[in-house]
Design brief:
Length: 211
């Protein structure tokens, strides 16, 4: 099952959004994420959050449509995004895409990267997307599709990452070790319409970036 989550992060002109409801089996909005879903004409299956940032009028509109809504106390241990991800996992998601998972709040952005680790541990594919970045966590291998010249950065997540091998990147790596606390893997670039990255030990943050 493929699940799409709308959060209240950065969307820009929405051009990065893959506006195809048929791509996803289930759509969840985290609080004000419902505003962004509405902009794209996507009707969510579920809305979760404490609704401290979302529009009351929009929430009432969704209630009238019969959309399932779960409201939480603002004093809670999880962010609204984590609540949405938990519901996606409960639904049996095999892939979770989080729109707006990166934004001006660095604390939320970093926390969302850490939420990807929880998915990685469960064997669920996850990614965060905003206008300029798509973020993955990789512990084995990944193939990325794009265009020649696209920027790809490789950053250790929580310790040294060993046995990093890349194909079709401008600065190739062969069984290399990327050490935490350095910037060696930043601003690589694709030499073809796809690239491959594999890891033998550790967890790598892989970011497809656009200026």
């Amino acid at each position: 099952m493929k699940v799409l989550i709308f959060t209240n992060g950065e969307y820009g002109d929405y051009s990065f959004c893959r506006n195809d409801r048929q791509t996803y089996d289930y759509v969840i909005c985290a609080d004000r994420g419902m505003t962004h879903a509405k902009h794209l004409g996507m009707i969510p299956d579920l809305i979760v959050g404490d609704f401290d940032s979302g529009s009351y009028e929009e929430l009432e509109e969704y209630k009238r449509q019969g959309i399932q809504i779960e409201q939480f106390d603002p004093v809670k241990d999880e962010t609204d995004t984590e609540l949405a991800i938990k519901r996606a996992v409960e639904k049996g998601a095999s892939l979770i895409t989080v729109y707006g998972g990166i934004g001006s709040r660095l604390d939320h952005s970093l926390a969302n990267v850490h939420l990807l680790y929880g998915l990685l541990e469960l064997g669920i594919k996850g990614r965060l997307m905003n206008p300029n970045n798509t973020v993955y966590l990789v512990s084995k291998e990944i193939t990325l599709k794009g265009e020649k010249g696209d920027l790809v950065s490789l950053i250790p997540f929580a310790g040294n990452v060993k046995g990093v091998t890349t194909q079709y990147l401008g600065y190739p790596l062969h069984h290399a070790t990327l050490h935490i606390g350095t910037s060696l893997g930043v601003s690589n670039y694709m030499t073809d319409s796809l690239c491959k990255i594999s890891v033998e030990e550790g967890v790598l943050i892989v970011i497809c970036a656009r200026d």
